[in-house]
């Protein structure tokens, strides 16, 4: 009987952790730009983000961005960024598409503009 109770508790805790994980990569009203947003996401896991893109975009409506990118379903920074980048790509007057490379260690993501070198190459 105790083993069954422990198993049920483990399942409930695991499901709760996954639900929390899936909701942590959202835009908030405190995120004024995409670089602010990505840096905050990296900090969730105790990491840093490098915004090396030549341009940054304001976040005028966090809720609209969350809905358009379906960020409530993103379980990690990579998925969240890809969703945001796709939404931005299809926005009128955005200009420069963005791409990101994920890394191990303290820097979890590097964001660059599409006309910049690949992430493993220097900017100059």
Give a quick rundown of the structure.
The chain is of the alpha+beta class and 124 residues long.
Number of strands: 3
Q: Supply the number of structural domains.
A: 1
User: Helical percent range?
Assistant: 40-55%
Count of alpha and pi helical runs: 4
- Multimeric status of the protein: single chain
Order of helices and strands: HHEHHEE
Largest sheet: 3 strands, mixed
List unreliable stretches of 5+ residues: 1-20
Query: On the 0-100 scale, what is the average pLDDT?
Result: 80
Coarse structural class:
alpha+beta
Q: Which strand order spans the largest sheet, edge to edge or round the barrel?
A: 1-3-2
Computed over alpha carbons, the radius of gyration is 17 Å
The proportion of residues in beta strands is: 5-15%
For the termini, the CA-CA separation is 65 Å
Backbone shape: globular
What does this 3D model show about the protein?
The chain is an alpha+beta fold. It has one domain (2-113). 44% of the residues lie in helices and 13% in strands. It is built from four helices and three strands; from the N terminus they run ααβααββ. It has helices at residues 2-22, 34-44, 62-69, 77-90, and strands at 48-51, 98-102, 107-113. Strands 1-3-2 form a three-stranded mixed beta sheet, covered by helices on one side. Strand 2 (98-102) and strand 3 form a beta hairpin. The longest helix has 21 residues, at 2-22. It starts with a helix and ends in an 11-residue tail after the last strand. The model is unreliable at 1-20 (pLDDT under 50).
């Amino acid at each position: 009987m105790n083993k069954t109770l422990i198993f049920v508790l483990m399942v409930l805790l695991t499901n709760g952790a996954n639900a929390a994980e899936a909701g942590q990569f959202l835009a908030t009203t405190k995120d004024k730009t995409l670089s602010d947003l990505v840096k905050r996401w990296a900090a969730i896991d105790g990491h840093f983000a490098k915004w090396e893109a030549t341009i940054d975009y304001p976040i005028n409506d966090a809720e609209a961005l969350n809905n358009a990118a379906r960020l409530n379903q993103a379980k990690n920074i990579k998925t969240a960024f890809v969703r945001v980048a796709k939404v931005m790509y299809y926005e009128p007057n955005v200009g420069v598409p963005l791409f990101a490379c994920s890394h191990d260690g303290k820097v979890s993501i590097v964001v660059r503009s599409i006309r910049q070198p690949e992430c493993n190459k220097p900017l100059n």
